[in-house]
Fold this sequence. Notes:
Layout: H1 7-29, H2 34-41, H3 45-53, H4 62-75, H5 80-85, H6 110-136, H7 143-159, H8 170-192, H9 200-205, E1 215-221, E2 225-231, E3 234-241, E4 246-251, E5 254-259, E6 265-269, E7 275-276, E8 284-289, H10 290-298
Antiparallel strand pairs: 1-4, 1-6, 2-3, 2-5, 5-8, 6-7
Amino acid sequence: MNQEVSRSEYSQSERLIQIGAYLQQVREEQGLSIEQVATKTIIPSRILKAIESGNLDILPEAIYVRGFIKRYADFLGLNGKDVSSSFPLFPDARPMEPTWQNSDVAQLRQTHLYLAYVALITVAVIGLGAVVTRLSNGDRPGSPNTTIESSLPASTSSTSSQPEEPSTPSGGDSNADTIDDSSGVSDLTTILNPIGLDGDSSSELLDPSLADKPIRVELEVKARSWLRITVDGRQDFEGVLPEGTQRIWAGDEDVVVRAGNAGGVLVALNGAEAEVLGEPGAVQEKRFSADDISSSQSR
């Protein structure tokens, strides 16, 4: 076997290492062994171990590897199609051997390169000199503005004879300015501040179409975690959210939150005080329904 590994093989191997490490983490969080997964998925344990360790040497063709990854991910409750599609089926082309050694370009001597540098510098100096000459002669980009500004007093004096419109009270102008400024600040706040868990502020930033939903679950990620969100019996989200993410889900009947790192996820129901979903590193699922709203209101 050649000691030199092609760039395509390296790329495939690196991608498999990333996917395998992710699947191994989810499997361990769910307390499953390789043998249990092999029994349920009918995938040989040696194939599962090779996928988790990123060992391409004992794996079959890429199309079969992708099928194994999809079946493995589906069994762990992940989106097998998305996970498996990240593994490339066709490697990039192998780097071509350089063939320019005998070309005319390769025969350029140091003198030729020196002459090219001198010519480039000469052209740059000539262009800079032309720009400086134009500026010294008064041909400045700002000169047309001077002509326009000089004509403004005349136009102002010609219109001064017309009757003035009734002036708005100074108080009205200041109020208008205050409204414009506050609206600008509100837009900027909406852009800069993500959806949070601070009670009323989260309801103001919630999508208007979801504001009338009776069940509103506010979520904040304190440590990176895989999450699956089901709203009214329909899966609405599945993926890994980074630390600092803040999201809101709303439904009519229930909202189910399942996390792979429950200790890193805070949840709150309808603006109530946020609580940790579970223990760090543990897989935890919690359902929020109308019964939870009634029990929280009775407290």
